[in-house]
Amino acid sequence: MTTDTTLSATSQPVEADAVIVGAGPAGLFQVFELGLLGIKSHIVDTLKHPGGQCAELYPDKPIYDIPALPVCGAQELVDRLMQQIKPFGPEFHFGEEVSALKAREDGRFDLQTSAGTRFIAKAVVIAAGLGSFQPRRLGVEGGEAFEGRQIHYRVKNAVDFHGKHLVIFGGGDSALDWVIDLSGKAASITQVHRRPEFRAAPASVARMKELVAAGKMKFVEGTAAALRIAGDQLTGVSVKRTDGGMEDLDADHLLAFFGLHPKLGPIADWGFALDKKAIAVDTAKFQTSVPGIFAIGDINTYPGKKKLILSGFHEAALAAFAIAEHLNPAKKVHLQYTTTSPIMQKRLGVNE
Ligand SMILES: Cc1cc2nc3c(=O)[nH]c(=O)nc-3n(C[C@H](O)[C@H](O)[C@H](O)COP(=O)(O)OP(=O)(O)OC[C@H]3O[C@@H](n4cnc5c(N)ncnc54)[C@H](O)[C@@H]3O)c2cc1C
């Protein structure tokens, strides 16, 4: 197995029985199934919150094909899963992307995240869905060279933008929140959005319009067309207005808030054979070609695979049994019912 990122000794590694990459519905239910078998999990997600596609792409939409729940909101499903896994005390690592995964000589695995967290895990479950949620980029030539320096897709430290000339792209809550927050603190703010309608809280839209009317900021309806560059510095951006005209805007920083979309990301470099961006697994254990590394949910593929939430739930159950055997090959794992198993009920905290 290969890795794109060298595992550097930035922090003391966390020793874990199981590390789950991805906190979508499949990863969350994996915590539950492992917990029933007495195995504690660490779960890592690039997003700052659990729920994967359900939470990020369609939180308000109803889902009709979760067994025994005739209708369930997507965010409600995530909330219910979080409630269900609570007794097992999983350790969450949100806002961190697993950037490297490497087999060790002792049969365990080294993992490292973008935040420098390191794990040594006996088993790994890749529950990465369609990939790691990443910000949508500005889509102008040469933009990558300025990322993190003068082009930003999130605000790490708002003070960095005080006294600066800013162009803020986007028409959602994040864009408007930062426009309002930085107004009066930045030297100037121009908001650029491709249409006059906004997908944001009405109160924020009203506040932004007040700021424009008071001459405290500018609004341009259009999209970024080209960067304006002098030497190695970004000096601004040319915007194509929706009325067809061009407008050159001076800026020290460009901030773009276009939402997030899933991108396979580092997994592509972990040495697995990929079939249409999915990892091949067997259907008894949902194990990859590497013993000890499992893949469940939308990220895996096998004959007949259907990318549905309930498929991920089933796969999590079987992977949990396989992981229990992997961790303790000498011990047979017997099927027990939650209805009647005292040990499972104890783990679930029933009657506590
Ligand atoms: C609009 C829409 C409607 C849908 N409706 C239904 C429906 O009605 N019924 C149904 O069954 N299914 C539905 N689906 C599909 C369903 O949402 C997916 O099957 C399900 O979300 C897959 O779950 P998952 O946990 O495998 O992956 P995801 O939900 O994609 O979660 C994967 C998580 O892994 C994280 N991740 C990936 N790589 C890394 C990394 N390297 N490091 C850290 N984190 C990483 C991602 O950030 C993400 O949060 C719908 C999908 C969409 C888009």
Can you tell me about this structure?
Helix content is 22%, strand content 29%. It has 352 residues and is α/β, with parallel strands linked by helices. The strands form 5 sheets. Strands 1, 2, 5, 6, 7, 8 and 20 form a 7-stranded mixed beta sheet that branches. It has a 7-stranded mixed beta sheet with strand order 10-16-11-12-13-14-15, covered by helices on one side. The protein has a 3-stranded mixed beta sheet with strand order 18-19-21, with no helix packed on it. It is elongated. The two termini are 44 Å apart. The relative contact order is 0.17. Residues 2-9 have low confidence and may be disordered. Bound molecules: flavin-adenine dinucleotide (FAD). Flavin-adenine dinucleotide binds next to helix 1, strand 2, helix 2, strand 9 and helix 6.
Task: Work out the strand percent.
Answer: 25-35%
Q: N- to C-terminal separation?
A: 44 Å
Give a short account of the largest sheet: 7 strands, mixed
Computed structural class: alpha/beta
Described by the principal axes of the CA atoms, the overall outline is elongated
Mean pLDDT: 94
Secondary-structure element sequence?
EHEHEEHEEEEEEEHEHEEEEEEEEEHH
**Total DSSP E strands:** 21
Uncertain segments: 2-9
Oligomer: single chain
Radius of gyration: 23 Å
Helix tally equals 7
Hetero groups in this structure are: flavin-adenine dinucleotide
What fraction, in percent, of the residue positions are helical? 10-25%
